[in-house]
Amino acid sequence: MRVFFDASVIIAALLSKTGGSSLLFKYITVQKIIGITSQTVIEEIQEEDKFTKIKKTKKQIEQFVAESGLVVRKPITTDEIDPYTGMVDMEDAHLVAGANLTRCKYLVTLDKKHLLRPDIQKKFLPLKILSPKELLQEITSSA
Question: Which CATH class is domain 2-142?
Fold first, then answer.
């Protein structure tokens, strides 16, 4: 099961060892899922306003990602994002592009405003855009 991780889920896992996002990282560790993200997502987490808010240094973020078992793809290019222009908020187009480029069946996010909306979810089928809770339900129902 290939899962593309949004910055929001990685940040949530960094901040809480007990939430659904954190549990997904445990599933990566035991190889129940293959967790994938991109350097673009990592750079988003390391933007100054974000990492000061989450009170983690760039080094702590890098260490968390390195130890998590997440596979990090090279940055998503403008050309790779272009096919999604106008289909989703421009700030999030790299996520759909990244999930499709890495052949992920799932994109996991906490972004209710732009991604976890039925109209957006339908646009990108067969890619399933889910919250951590919904993905955990998928994992446990397929076990």
Answer: alpha beta
